[in-house]
Amino acid sequence: MKIPANPVMISELRGRIRGARAMIILTIYLSLTGIITLLIYLAFASSFSFNQNDFEAGRRIGKAIFLTVMTSALVQVCIITPSLTAGSIAGEKERQTYDLLITTLLSPWQIAIGKLISALAFAFLLVLAVLPLAGLAFLFGGVSGMELIIAMIGLIMTAILYATVGLFWSTVMRTTLGATVMAQGMIILSLLGIPFIFVITGVIVANARGGNDPTESVIFVYTMGTLLSLHPFIALGLTEVLLGQGENPFYFRFESGQLNLLLPSPWLAYTLLACLLTLLFLFLSVRMIKPVQYKPARKRRNAESTALPG
Predict the structure, then answer these.
(1) Rounded (5°) CA angle 29-122-181
(2) With the C-alpha atoms ordered 139, 141, 143, 144, is the resulting torsion angle positive or negative?
(3) Cα angle at 129 between 124 and 130, to 5 degrees?
(4) Adjacent-strand bridge partners of 256
(5) Cα separation of 3 and 114, whole Å?
(6) For the segment 147-156, what is each residue's pLDDT rounded down to a tens digit?
(7) How far apart are CA 25 and CA 84, in angstroms?
(8) 200-254 tens-digit pLDDT
């Protein structure tokens, strides 16, 4: 499968990048991020009195700018990315060109990869476009290069995962609107449902343990840790907190009661889980794109005759 020669990817890229829609989305995306960043800077700058002995003021402003830019970019990636792929297959069905697409010499994998890469190319453009805004934080200090790398990896993996979710629902639904609603609904449900499940499970486990701290249970720590690692905001937020406490970027030590566990960093767990879910949704999308294979009539009659007793 030659990706550079994929005609679906080339056609989708030309239609997606050359149109006015790409420029409008990029302009709105950067404008919102820039306005929010400016407001945060003005709010923090007005609360600090700068003098020669106040070295922490600049570091706090730099940290605030960095967190604001990355949080705003992550929110917009969660909203925009599924919409980029929700109409990839459903749009073909609406234009009545889906049957022509699957009867070409392209395999279902080539069709799915071509649609996905064309959408991810624009999503990566959105991610890279916030780098200059995030770079403003280095002028004030308080942010390390490792924090920027981890944040960019988190944004890229979120874009890949949610783009695959949109592609999956695009193969299931028959309209672009339906695919967009289902993809956005699934993402919103997961973002809101994971903290809810964590809280409810914590209360249930605490009551079962006689009011003791549920984090003293190894099963609870690993189960809920895996669940929280599926949430991009929680995983990246916990990573930022751990880095601020001086923990290693790749692992940290969790202590609660008699427990003393060495766990992978939340961003690392999120990256691994996002890769696994991406492969799962991509496989399901290919299975939905793959046309039904009918056996020839002679082979079907022979198969039925051999299946009869006697």
Answers:
(1) 75
(2) positive
(3) 110
(4) 259
(5) 7
(6) 889 999 999 9
(7) 11
(8) 988 888 888 777 778 778 888 888 889 999 999 999 999 998 888 888 889 888 8
